[in-house]
Amino acid sequence: MRKISSILLTLLIVLSILGACSPLSEAAAPAAAEVDAAPQPVANLPSPMTSYASLKEMLAAAQGINMMDVPVGATNVSYDTITGGEVSPIAQILFQFEGNDYTYRAAVCQTDAAMKDIAGVYDQFAAHKDVVTDPNSTTGGIYGLEYSDGSTLGLATWFYAPTLCQYSLFTTTGCGVDQKIEEVVDYLLPITMAVDGTPLMLPQTTMTPDSFNAVGTVEGTVVSLAENAIIINMENGNTLTFLLSNIVSVDVTAGDQVSIDYSGNILEAPEVVAITVTDKVATQISGVVMQHDNKMVYVKTATGNVYGFLLTDKTLVSGKATVITTNAEVKVTYTGDILTHPIVTVVEIVKAGSDNDPLVNKTLDGRVTQLSSKTVFIHTNSGHNYKFQRVSSTEYLGKYPLEVGAKIKVTYDGYASKAPEAKIINVLAPPDPTPPGPKTHKATGYIESMAGNMIEILGDDGRDYGFLLGKVKISGDSDCGVGDRATVTYYLEHDGTMTATSIFFRKTLLK
Q1: Taking a C-beta distance cutoff of 8 angstroms, is the pair 169, 156 a contact?
Q2: Is 3 helix (H, G, I), strand (E, B) or coil?
């Protein structure tokens, strides 16, 4: 035992001497230390997430991003920006609403084709659908929804051209059977269409001058604007026409004061190089505020159309209140085309509203699919099915009876997906008329064969007939067979097949 110990001691001494003399020892030692050492924190590493006290503060820091605030009644709300990733910055709002958790994100994006993954969700979803929110509700638009049957996880994504931003909304609990996420998206999705489906907000485009230089500049008032020409009146009374062949887009309306740089001969259809609006003509519209934030206000008119207006630092709010709120009755004075980024100069509040008020007097058009004494189900043009409660206070309008197939407009409060009470049911049109049945014919003769779903007879007119038996009404004598008489009522299919609808059998003594 003592001998083995001395041998081991000798080996250890030799190895230590070799290690000290080896040229690799100095390099190898630090490498081993790097492998074994615990990772050290990096000093002064900036945090990728910054928190803010409000949506206004967050959007002020996240230049170029615009997003709606959370629904009224949301709790545990936090506002953050995320930087340093492939898309930077990303604005994020975490909140809980009606018992479900949500992560709402937005980032600058120029086109829908340029959308990136900003949701940061790595769950696998089994299904996808494009959801078209009904244009008759307070919001409208299209978004993609990722989900899985039997799971409460859901992810909605969309792009909105007027704000040049993309958005995502993720939930771990609010999808599933009730699809609560759709109600939240219905609130957050910017308004993009009117009742008739016409787009209301179009992406802002810039005018691109042609490569040639302008030879002159004139000023005047726009008389009219066509697809390829603009006509102005000058102060001296002259009327001039300019071609717009080299202009990508023009945000000009009749009545605007403009300065036009042009090329070519001023008397021979000159070409516009650039247009500068020096004074916009103002227009006024009345309606009810449906949604608003610090950059936009959405107003629903008496005709049911919803328009989005841009707010600026110079926008004046006056009248019964000095703050814009949901459901306020307003008169909006704006400049520019109402379909392409109208800018608000004055918001006169005729009747104050409240951001705590529920969504009221929303409408949906559709055909009645089911009807009972207490409920009515409709199918909308956008493919959605909704259920409404019929109560004692429900008002009925229209000159047609309420029946399955009738076209109706339902006025209600709140969300259609929650089967609200119908305030007004207006029957707009009766059910579509039932198309006439096919023209029928008759043939009488002796039965030649009866097999499977076919019967053949020799007609009294000498023709051989073969009939396909579908849903056939049978009458006459029973136990008839080959040699007996039959009168067949039938119609012709498109391919010439004779399909029997009824057969009258009669026994014959010739058998």
Answers
A1: yes
A2: helix
Q: Is the peptide bond before 435 cis (omega within 30 degrees of 0)?
A: no
User: How far, in Å, CA of 314 to CA of 312, rounded?
Assistant: 5
Residue 148, CA distances (Å) to 96, 158, 400 in order: 21, 19, 42
| Count of CA atoms in the C-beta half-sphere (13 A) of 249 | 9
Please give the average per-residue pLDDT across 95-119, as a whole number. Answer: 90
Cβ neighbour number for residue 10 with a 10 Å cutoff: 10
Each residue of 222-245: b (16+ CB within 10 Å) or e? beebeeeebbbeeeeeeebebbbe
For residue 466, report the phi and psi dihedrals to the nearest 5 degrees.
Answer: -125, 125
Q: Please give the span between the terminal C-alpha atoms of the chain, in angstroms, as a whole number.
A: 123
Distance set, CA 56 to CA 165, 383, 480 (Å)? 17, 37, 87
Phi and psi, residue 25, nearest 5°: -65, -40
At 422, which helix (H) or strand (E)?
A: strand 422-429
Residue scoring higher pLDDT (274 or 170): 170
CA distance 207 to 334: 22
Tokens of 418: 């929650």
pLDDT at 381: 76
Q: Which residue has the higher pLDDT, 66 or 387?
A: 387
Which tens digits make up the pLDDT trace of 227-262?
Answer: 678 888 887 777 788 888 766 566 777 778 888 888
What is the overall mean pLDDT for the chain?
78
Per residue in 327-342, pLDDT (tens digit) is 889 999 888 777 766 7
Place of tokens 């119609």: 491
Structure tokens at 298: 């959405």
- Quickly tell me which residue has 């969309």 as its tokens: 158
Say whether pTM exceeds 0.85.
no
372: nearest Cα among 413, 404, 410: 404
DSSP state, 199? Answer: B
Query: Please, are residues 106 and 167 in contact by the beta-carbon 8 Å criterion?
Result: yes
**Is the distance from CB of 67 to CB of 95 less than 8 angstroms?**
no
At residue 86, φ and ψ (nearest 5 deg) are: -60, -40
Q: pLDDT tens digits for 303-358?
A: 777 788 888 888 889 888 888 988 889 999 888 777 766 788 889 999 888 776 56
Which long-range contacts does 446-450 make (Cβ < 8 Å, 24+ apart)? 446/483, 446/484, 446/485, 446/486, 446/508, 446/510, 447/480, 447/481, 447/482, 447/483, 447/484, 447/485, 447/486, 448/482, 449/482, 450/481, 450/482
